[in-house]
Specification:
By secondary structure, the chain is an alpha/beta fold. 21% of the residues lie in helices and 32% in strands. The chain is built from six helices and 16 strands. The strands form three sheets. A seven-stranded mixed beta sheet has the order 6-5-4-3-2-1-16, covered by helices on one side. The chain has a seven-stranded mixed beta sheet with strand order 7-8-11-12-13-14-15. It has a two-stranded antiparallel ribbon with strand order 9-10. Strand 12, helix 4 and strand 13 (161-165) form a beta-alpha-beta unit. The mean pLDDT is 98.
Length: 229
């Protein structure tokens, strides 16, 4: 299984010759090395409706004939744009054929910003995902603050790899993310959602060092860098 980190919260997972991408945000990310037209996937998964998570969902989905998986309100909105969507909700699981995606809770906000109209439309609740493929489980926490049910998720699941936000300001910062990593009990943790903008700059290497002091394997991935699981 190959995993590529595209920067911010965007993660691409390829298994058995098929691929999915979570929260594609490339055109608006000054640190991204890929462009939407570079992405070849079979599915696009969205954790919530903010621009820095859905910006490139439409061009990627249309170019690849890919399905977009999102909470039902966001999926309905995107379907009005001619996108093939799968609407779901917290606790549900979607079988993509090459992987299964379970939508889990996240604590954040979610709104579709209609810039020209200067209004924000309700985008459903925010979420994270548990991705299962090749007998492995990957957690993408989405944008979230710390919440105690992370411990329950860790007790119920055997998580091989977790992507956890550390940027602060809009999500958990490093200290809360460290607690989240402990509660999730993942075998390996990769920090996300940091450095894209000045307000969320963090020392990812220092975070990984703190993980390792607690006996948790951590890894920093640069935008465009890949790893094998």
């Amino acid at each position: 299984m190959e995993i590529i980190y595209h920067g911010h919260s965007s993660v691409q997972i390829t298994t058995g010759g098929q691929s999915l991408i979570i929260d594609p945000f490339l055109r608006g990310n000054p640190l991204a090395v890929a462009k939407p037209e570079d992405i070849k996937v079979d599915a696009v998964l969205l954790t919530h409706a903010h621009d820095d998570h859905i910006l490139d969902a439409e061009p990627i989905a249309k170019a690849n004939g890919a399905k977009v998986v999102a909470v039902v309100e966001l999926a309905t909105y995107l379907s009005w744009k001619g996108i093939d969507t799968i609407g779901m909700n917290l606790g549900g699981t979607v079988d993509l054929g090459f992987a299964q995606a379970k939508m889990i809770q996240a604590f954040h906000t979610s709104g579709i910003t209609l810039h020209e109209e200067k209004r924000i439309m309700y985008g459903g609740v925010p979420a994270g995902f548990l991705i299962r493929a090749e007998g492995k489980t990957i957690l993408h926490a989405g944008d979230t603050s710390l919440f105690s049910d992370m411990k329950m998720i860790g007790e119920r699941e055997s998580i091989d790899l977790a992507f956890i936000p550390i940027g602060g300001h809009f999500t958990m910062g490093p200290d809360d993310a460290l607690q989240a990593a402990e509660w999730f009990g993942a075998r390996q943790v990769v920090p996300v959602h940091y450095d894209t903008f000045p307000v969320i700059r963090q020392d990812s290497e220092a975070f990984v060092k703190k993980l390792e002091e607690k006996g948790i394997r951590g890894r920093v991935l640069a935008p465009g860098e890949s790893m094998t699981l």
